Amino acid sequence: MDERNRGIIRAALDKELESLEIVLTAKATRTAITINEYIDLSLAQGVDADILEANLLKDLEEGGRIFGEFRNSIKATVSGAIGRTRDGAQLAIIGVDTKYRWSAVLINTCPDCLERHGKIMKWEDWEVEGLPRTGQTVCGANCKCVLLPEVATELEPIIRGR
After folding, report:
1. Residue 122 bridge partners (DSSP)
2. pLDDT tens profile 144-161
3. Which structural domain range is residue 148 located in?
4. Is residue 49 a contact partner of residue 18, using CB atoms and an 8 Å limit?
5. Do residues 135 and 82 share a domain?
6. Domain total for the chain?
7. Do 91 and 105 share a domain, yes or no?
8. 80 and 132 share a domain?
9. Burial of 124 by CB count in 10 Å (0-12 exposed, 13-18 middle, 19+ buried)?
10. How many CB atoms lie within 10 A of CB 70?
């Protein structure tokens, strides 16, 4: 791998680490605010502190409204980060001068991704338009779409099984 491609990977990883720090901090802060709100409201309504503690522990163990939401948001964030890291490695291997085709995955596909399916552009243009899993589509970090190097044939949407 040449130095230019190593630089692309380093830049992508640096950007990803910085983004992850911002997103994870925000998610933890939102969860802390939700917990504080739940505690304050419960106490104002006269809920006993022991019952309040038991309710929070149950929510944590069962992935309830508060901790389940936090867990799901972390899973989506990590999944998106892994995908974006893979995309950066693909870019370094294939190169920035190649054109890439947006390929939608038809599981809960957002309207933004459906509109982009089959569209072909250079990587830099996709960065402006919005790459998969970067929050620039309705589905955000949950995006399952991929950018594939342009090929001569038309692509059908990828249908993933569960």
Report:
1. 99
2. 888 888 864 555 666 666
3. 96-162
4. no
5. no
6. 2
7. no
8. no
9. exposed
10. 20
Question: What distance in Å separates the CA atoms of residue 6 and residue 131, rounded to the nearest whole number?
Answer: 20
Both tokens of 20, joined, read 């992850």
Strand partners, 121: 100
C-alpha span between 96 and 124 (Å, rounded): 7
12, pLDDT greater than 80: no
| 99 φ/ψ angles, rounded to the nearest 5 degrees | -90, 145
Do 55 and 105 reside in the same domain of the chain? no
Q: What pLDDT, in 10s, does the model give residues 73-107?
A: 999 888 888 887 887 777 777 777 789 999 988 77
CB 96 within 8 A of CB 124: yes
Cβ pair 133, 83 in contact under 8 A? yes
Distance of CA 148 to the CA centre of its chain: 18
Distance CA(84)–CA(63), nearest Å, equals 27
Tokens, residue 32: 């802390």
Instruction: Identify the CA nearest to 138 among candidates 118, 102, 109, 104.
Output: 109
* pTM recorded for the entire structure: 0.65
As given in the structure block, the two tokens for residue 146 are: 């991929």
Phi-psi region of 55 (alpha: psi -120 to 50; beta: other; left: phi over 0): alpha
